Amino acid sequence: MSVPVPRTIRSAAPVLAFIFVAVLVIQVYRSPDYKLIPGYPMLTPFYFEPPEASVLHSVIRGDNVAWTMDNETAWHSVGRHPNQPECWTFEDRFGAYKNLSLEMAAAISNNNKKNRSKKAIILRLGGGNDANGKSAWKSQFIWHVRSLVMEAGYLAGYDVLIFVHLDLNEEDRNAWLQRLPKELQPLVQTFSTRQLKEWIRGGQFKNVYEHNHIPIQMFMEKNPQYDFVYSIENDVRLIGRWDTFLADVDTEYSFHRKYQKSDQNMSSIPDLVSFQSISQPPSDWVWYKEKEDQKCVKHFGGKDNILFSLGAVWGWSRQLTDSLTKLNTEGFNCYFEYFAPTVARWANLTSFFYQHPLYCPNRDSPSERHTINPDKLGKNDPRLVQSSKVPVGCTYYFINIHSQPFWDTWYQNPRACRPPALVHPVK
């Protein structure tokens, strides 16, 4: 004989079913882009709370000194002031990434699974010949990489790959990769010097330092799903969030495109994004003396047509990488800091310099200033950010005389805070 179900249970059943479905829908909505990988089960819905600055006010004083709370160095804002009125402590910036939850590990590992994005970020690493783990990652760097994947990937929708130069045999290569944090291993792609030499067509390949563009070109050819890629060197850091920073770049470029001149034809996305001004090298530049580069300079019509920029972070479109590769097939392979900017102008592509805050210690002048006449820029380049004396150096430069103390005195002092900044190099 069947036992009758109490009325209260019958009434509650639809409600319980609704709650179950709602929880399931929320989980799928919050985590739509990845499947779980072994070792990182998703036990509960993942609600990622991105980091926020604890000091929210205008951090640049009237005398252009940044209010940093450490009172040891007067850091002067020497260029553009930050877009965001905030000041980050080291704990504000990286506290969310120190203790890795299973849910965050799964989100990081599976960020690129479905490859829906047409934009990628490659974090450039050099493993060299170190098979013994001497270059094992430090905690600070791991927190930085996690922040890049969670903010640029999970929040902003980029695929994020760790692109490692390894000249090791297969056994040592596999051992090196196994030493990486487990959640980051699925994001790794590797390449060797031999592969670069075999891939390049026509042009001479010297080394990854001088021809830093070749790995990016090869990456784009082997990953045809991407229309655009940011390349970020491993000694770059960001104070502030990557999703906010990248959105600011896109918003500003859209503004310039909206108000472009009638004779310009800016592409929907820039072909070259630079974070140091695009300018002409000095006439006695060392790279003018190399035999292969003399051949390149002659091809582009002489020194007056050469442009260069710092390549610690830059963004390249497929049109640009295809243009570089075509020139390789014709026998040209030039020093990387001027090859891409010069080709972008030469091919009537669009180059965009995004001016970001720079800070100098105890003085109100930058390391350098770059000036370029508008007629030296590409026809389709935004003009407004390049036509005056643009500050160069200090916390974003080719040497770390200012960037390192800006970073070190921040993380060593829990009370210190820093305004938003793209910092290079940090060793």
Q: What is the H/E order?
A: HEHHEHEHEHHEEHEHEHHEEEEHE
With strands numbered from the N-terminus, the spatial order across the biggest sheet is 4-3-2-5-8-7-9
Strand element count: 13
Gyration radius, in Å:
24 Å
Main beta-sheet strand count, sense and barrel state:
7 strands, mixed
Strand % is: 5-15%
* Count of the domains: 1
Spans of 5+ residues with little confidence (pLDDT < 50)? Answer: 7-12, 15-39, 130-135
Shape: globular
Secondary structure class reads: alpha/beta
What average pLDDT do the residues reach?
Answer: 88
Report the helical percentage. Answer: 25-40%
Question: Termini, distance in Å?
Answer: 77 Å
Q: What is the count of DSSP helices, taking H or I runs of 4+ residues?
A: 12
Transmembrane segments: 12-29
Keywords: Membrane, Transmembrane, Transmembrane helix
Pfam families: DUF3405 (PF11885)
Structural summary, described in words:
The chain is α/β, with parallel strands linked by helices and 427 residues long. It has one domain (75-423). The chain has twelve helices and 13 strands. The protein has helices at 7-30, 90-94, 102-109, 139-155, 170-178, 193-199, 213-222, 242-258, 291-299, 318-329, 336-346, 403-411, and strands at 75-77, 119-128, 159-166, 188-191, 228-233, 237-239, 272-274, 313-317, 351-353, 359-361, 368-370, 390-392, 421-423. It has a seven-stranded mixed beta sheet with strand order 4-3-2-5-8-7-9, sandwiched between helices. A two-stranded antiparallel ribbon has the order 1-10. Helix 7 (213-222) packs across helix 10 and helix 10 (318-329) packs across helix 11 (336-346). The protein is globular and about 55 Å long. The termini are far apart.
